[in-house]
Amino acid sequence: MGKMGSEMLIYVLLLMAGVLASGQSSQVKIWPMPASVSYGHTHLYLTNDFGFSSNYGSEILKDAFDRMLALIKLDHVIDANFSAFNSSSLLQGLHIVISSPNGQLQYGVDESYKLIVPSPEKPAYAHLEAKTVYGALQGLQTFSQLCYFSVTSRVLQIDMSPWTIFDQPRFSYRGLLIDTSRHYLPVPVIKKVIDSMSYAKLNVMHWHIVDTQSFPLEIPSYPKLWDGAYSPSERYTVADAADIVSYARKRGINVLAEIDVPGHALSWGTGYPSLWPSKDCQQPLDVSNEFTFKVIDGILSDFSKIFNFKFVHLGGDEVNTSCWTTTPRIRNWLKKRGMNESQAYQYFVLRAQNIALSHGYEIINWEETFNDFGNKLSRKTVVHNWLGGGVAQRVVASGLRCIVSNQDKWYLDHLDTPWQEFYANEPLTNITNLKQQKLVIGGEVCMWGETVDGSDIEQTIWPRAAAAAERLWTPFDKLAKNPRDVTGRLAHFRCLLNQRGVAAAPVAGLGRAAPEGPGSCYRQ
């Protein structure tokens, strides 16, 4: 019998003996709920020199362990007298075993892990095993939720030991959109969002960088584009963007960059007015002008040096083509080519797709592109559903991949959508064919920025995004059938976010709600 087999036998025997408990107990406070959890009834205490050892030499792992330890300590002073503790209850460290040397973060990376606290072979240590360093990062997040500072023992404590956790995500794409066009978000604010995403095991930050209102990112190929920023100080340099990507990667998070074309692009013309159909009719981008596609090519060329995620998002939503037909020059161009405005929209989207493909990207487009000409889209397209139900069904039936973000359930700017609806939103609704289910690569909650800036973004995202995060991580049969059953555990996670410096709003209330009155965090 192999090592894993013998561990499973011990685990089953302990369950039968009643030493361990298993399943969705109200005592288990981990968020999102792991695939398999068992626990016991004893306490462990982390020694003052609690450290880690690993077969995998990696700065990513070392930094993640140090961050985790700081998160558990939360600036408390550890002043316990360790000589008073039974030595068998002391945990000296965490041993981490990673089987793959490949440290590249990319879509579909193996994020599974196994966590045993304490290790049966070395009871003074916890044991974390993963295929990749990114699985180990997820395991560290779970370990951090088992630990807390006890004001009684004045030490970092783990209850309900021994723990055995086997875990892996249900979906490979678990996203959060941020919008830096409607309001500029300073780099430290974006980094705080990335940190909070990692606590909930979200793994894609969709960066909606530019839109009608502003163009804040430096594009070296076309340096006047960021003339469309709100002000000189509300801009991101190439180095800023690369720093954000690197910061996210160290936390197991990919950054999906978006340029939305041909609509939502008025700000492009501030620096390059020839991108507008005319001075008085400024979007969508001018379909008749070759310069338009040269600029898109330049942007995506520059993106390829910064954003190394497999996908790029090309938008394609809410395109009002009336400027094309009311501008004589463009109207004549259309007439010469025998195109009407909807055909011109298709021409634009497909040409932008080909440019992205030439830079090595696969493409994500908003669902209107599929609704209007789905059979013409590149087979490397992922369709991003946002308008409503039934679209994901049709997308996967056509053989294309899909990301679910239906606005009635997963738009964070809809403050009247409660967390219970975020939790209950099922990406595979009415998709029963197993092959088609695999084409739904995941989902994303969207934090559109019209009423959000650095002052209120955290409490608008959290805790509702955490409800969706569990839907995307936890196996379907482990999810609560009634969201009410996880209220206490979500409140616990919300309080944990507060303790970690994340301004998550109360669970009792709608988006961005304030506490209704005095009381414990866990009751609000």
Describe what this molecule looks like in 3D:
- With 524 residues, the chain is α/β, with parallel strands linked by helices.
- It is 33% helix and 19% strand.
- It has 18 helices and 17 strands.
- It has helices at residues 3-17, 59-73, 133-146, 187-199, 238-249, 268-271, 290-304, 322-326, 328-336, 341-358, 368-373, 391-397, 407-410, 419-424, 434-437, 457-461, 464-473, 487-499; strands spanning 21-22, 36-39, 42-54, 90-98, 113-117, 125-130, 147-150, 155-161, 163-167, 173-179, 204-208, 254-258, 311-313, 362-366, 381-385, 401-404, 440-447.
- The strands form 2 sheets. The chain has a 9-stranded mixed β-sheet with strand order 1-2-9-5-6-4-3-8-7. Strands 12-11-10-17-16-15-14-13 form an 8-stranded parallel β-sheet.
- α4 links the parallel β10 (173-179) and β11.
- α2 runs parallel beside α3, α4 packs parallel to α5 (238-249) and α7 (290-304) packs parallel to α10.
- It starts with a helix and ends in a 25-residue tail after the last helix.
- The relative contact order is 0.10.
- It is an enzyme of class 3 (hydrolase).
- This is Beta-hexosaminidase.
- Residues 30-146 form the Beta-hexosaminidase eukaryotic type N-terminal domain.
